[in-house]
User: Fold 1-aminocyclopropane-1-carboxylate oxidase from Acorus calamus.
Amino acid sequence: MAIPVIDFSKLDGDSKAMAEALAEIANGCEEWGFFQLVNHGIPVELLERVKKVCSESYKEREQGFKRSEPVHILNHLIDGNDGVSAEDLKKCDWEDAFILQDDNEWPSSPLNFKETMKEYRIELKKLAEKVMEAMDTNLGLQKGYIKKSFSNDDNDVPFFGTKVSHYPSCPHPDLVTGLRAHTDAGGVILLFQDDKVGGLQILKDGRWIDVQPVKDAIVINIGDQVEVLSNGRYKSVWHRVLSLKDGNRRSIASFYNPSYKATIAPAPELSLGAGGYPAFVFGDYMSVYVKQKFMPKEPRFQAVKAL
Assistant:
């Protein structure tokens, strides 16, 4: 069983090719919650630069990770020191990560990191909006509906952030997870994952399925807010990253999320029938999510309803 891989260029083809691409995207959204895009329009040369600067960035941060809490807990556990247990590790992620957004400070090193990632984020944002327009079409919504729903008004635009992660080699992958199982809080997530080192898995039909590395592909997954807008037709999916004894996994995830002031609710055209999700302000949802990220998602919707 493999995650769908979709030729995104078919959306710009003739009517038959476009219909095929839209059907494949609908299947990816409805049956999987995850799919991969190839021929997505982002230049390969840019992707190669992104790989290079992000890998170099981790090399500069590697010594810092060796002093991090999960490494500290694991070392103490292996040494048999009192005061730590395997349960402590279950609350940790074997991950080195930092966030890029338009209004925070970015690393000034390595050379060309800022320029490369700025260019990459521009391309990713355009791709996200094109993916959302395909979702609009498949859901029978007006073009641009999802993007507009993510805005509070013209002065309060959707949030776009990028998480640059590395999952270093782990001496005891049986004791700690790279990233614990969760669903994503936001809207549409675009992941440029390592094309050599695996580890990302999704939960489908009660089984953990590998998201197979595909060179230069962009992995798309559905966040909780698109589940609400679609009234449950599209579902956010549990996923995790395994820690590995061999390999150092690179992962660059970009999140196209609602503004914190945006009100999220099922689209009126889709609000009849099953689902019954409450309307809420995204910022309120996030205040619940940060406390319950690694817990079942359904109680989050009920908790935010009560706010």
Summary: The longest strand covers residues 159-167.
